[in-house]
Amino acid sequence: MKVALLGLGFMGRTHLNALHTLPGAELAAVFVPEIAQIHTVVQGNLGGEPKAPDLKGAKVFTSIAETLADPGIDVVDICLPTNLHAETAIAAFAAGKHVLVEKPMAVDPLSAGEVIEAAKKAKKTLMAAHVLRFFPEYDPLRDAITKGGFGKLRMLTLRRRCGAPTWGEWFFDSAKSGGAILDLLIHDVDMVLSLLGAPVSLTSTGYRDMRRGIDSVSAHFVYEHGPSVVIDGGWVPPKGFPFSMGYTAVFDDATLEFTSQGGGVVLHREGVEPEAQTLPVVDAYAAEIAYFLDCCAHGREPEKCPPEQSAQAIDLCLRMAEGRHAHH
Questions:
Q1: What is the rounded distance in angstroms from the CA atom of residue 130 to the CA atom of residue 149?
Q2: What's the CA gap between 93 and 283, in Å, rounded?
Q3: What does pTM read for this prediction?
């Protein structure tokens, strides 16, 4: 499938590298606002060597409209600032393309709904790139919840934090990015939706001072007969604060814990040594894009990452943000 990549920021380059590894994908075009951006070096919170991207002969456009009008393109992969996601996705559907859009799909649930409608009208495939669903570290948690074996899930805490992003000024304009909740913690909100469905209600508390690079929240999701769920984290000072993510899942008879800083996923049970879980080594970004392209090729709904849940995640994130503001 011929893919047009829109945006060459941190996420755009992550997608670019993943696309190069996929035999089923051909990078046909790239959109950048100005050509100079191709040669700039970008560093994100996943580490790795910053280097100029290899476009492998793809056409370079400086107009989104021109990119979408190219009849040689089957798929549009949107890695632009968040406030441009919805309008660009809708324009891509109007041009008859399939759309993979970086999370969050939109800055509000209403716009997300319009994107979903546009996809249905165009009879094209839509998926928001919620990459956490493709991380093998979350599979033991999913298995423990769905297959059982450790009794009921009683408590689930998901954590994610890092220094405020340094690779784009737009992050600090919450109208453009939604701040840390919509940009960062939406990963965990989406994971909870995928594991447990929507909560009955939620409460949140937190603190925000964008000037200091603080945008942190702790939210409690309430389920009628389900576990107590807490999502905790955000951006913390200083800007170089290391990225980390993880979870603690308390079952009747065991605790499953994941820490991204070298700890991996460990199962703790009575009378047994802590058991490190053996996980496959996966490039989650490549796995996510490959899955999406497969859905496009076969006209299948992306059941592993349904757009309706991606829209629901935006709604929950905005409710988390509102709860936090009520405390100041």
A1: 28
A2: 28
A3: 0.93
